[in-house]
Amino acid sequence: MTRLRPGALAATAAVFLLAGCTVGPNYHRPDAATAPAWKENAPPPPNPPNGTWKQAEPSDGALKGAWWEMYGDPQLSALEAKVAVSNQTLRAAMEQYNAAREQVRVARSQYYPTLSAGPSAQRTRESYNQANTNRAVTDYQFNTFTIAGQAQWEPDLWGQVRRTVEQARASAQASAALLANVELSLRAELAADYFEMRGLDSQQQLLDNTVKSYEEYLKLTQIRFKGGVATESDVALAQTQLETTRAQDIDVGVARAQYEHAIATLIGTPASTFSLPPMPLGVQIPQVPVGVPSQLLERRPDIAAAERQVDAANAQIGVAVAAYYPNVSLTGTGGFASGNPGTLIQGPSEMWSLGASAVELLFDAGRRHAITQQARDAYEQQVANYRQNVLAAFQDVEDNLAAIRILNQESAQQQLAVEAAERSLNISTNRYKGGVTTYLEVLTAQTAQLGNQRTQADIATRQFVASVQLIRALGGGWDTSQLPKL
């Protein structure tokens, strides 16, 4: 066997590296359907008196990272600050990303040779009766002391390691995008729950005021009954209306408690130790800047995650194709060996060896072909998932733009209904006091007024929630520049 000199081995390795290539398809982001403009992003209608939204200001050019500050609600901002440090779902997603990031380091380690070294000591006794035994030797026991190191390297001639690193990097970036999507979803859920709870506070305030008003109406009917100008039926109707409204007032507390408990869980606090005092909706809904549809591909973290998964699937094809080429391995061993510890570190005790090997698999019954085709199928699957994700994102934005537009129109119309119901109740009350009509007319007007007022409060809550969902649909100020450069 001819031994390779170290210089010759290095030259051989250099030739291998220069001749190496990266097999498999290079990645290109797949195309996806987009639109030139948002269908539902029409100019808003005139703001009604005491309206709940405002026109965009010049500074509202783009969503910012802390998008919840757009609402100008200090309590909401304080709650959002606790999500990043206390939410356990977000913590789990963070650890998942950390594990994916470390996998990139694992893949990169394959670029380099593995080195090992260490001493060894061995006591050996050979058989006296084995073949070719030297009968003149009487001692068949001896010691062997060794200090040796070994290096082994498989040069990345066909790009298998490069594709593996590419796959691990894309997977880690996908995990980072999913982490951002989890955080966005949690923050949006917190804001939506918060506004739902504040909307219930508004309804409870409305019902509290209505109960006080109905108590006055009950006193009115009782006074008129005692004066002989009203019937006992009027008193019973007023009492029924009052008690029914009190029951509605109490019932609001069920949903409010549930939203309060949900907020506690989102900020990582036991529901039993968390409470928020009632505070009706009082802030304005900001006009959310939506940009152009093509920007959505860069602003939605879930789309970015799907696109990075396509890249990872593409790199996996290269890993599979590289299996068709020979595995080349370079090895080297060096150190000292002696039968006496005193002569171990001496020139005559030196030993070394260098070697290279190349192995090509000649027959595997179609295994490599199947694995390669499997990787190509997985790539096409990820492409389809990416395109579907894009379509769903456009639908998400359009749904919430439509909701905001229609709710704005409904709010303006509902304001007119509330005003009309208030006029109707005033007229009916005056007619009843004048003895022109029965209390049934007043009760009908009261029911219409309360129903319209509650509908108006519900619309305001839905407007807030729709604006939060629109922000979430637009990516919440995130963009692909925030992906880690691994």
List the helices and strands and how they pair.
Blueprint: H1 6-19, H2 74-86, H3 88-108, E1 114-125, E2 141-153, H4 160-226, H5 232-266, H6 296-299, H7 301-322, E3 327-338, E4 350-359, H8 367-433, H9 439-473
Antiparallel strand pairs: 1-2, 2-3, 3-4
Helix pairs in contact: 2-4, 3-4, 4-5, 4-7, 4-9, 5-9, 7-8, 8-9
What low-confidence regions span 5 or more consecutive residues with pLDDT below 50? Answer: 44-60
CATH homologous superfamily title:
Outer membrane efflux proteins (OEP)
CATH architecture: Up-down Bundle
Order of helices and strands: HHHEEHHHHEEHH
| Range of helix content | 55-70%
CATH class: Mainly Alpha
- Helical run tally: 9
Strand content is 5-15%
Largest sheet: 4 strands, antiparallel
Mean pLDDT: 89
Report the principal-axis shape: elongated
Short account of what is shown:
By secondary structure, the protein is of the alpha+beta class. The protein has helices spanning 6-19, 74-86, 88-108, 160-226, 232-266, 296-299, 301-322, 367-433, 439-473; strands at 114-125, 141-153, 327-338, 350-359.
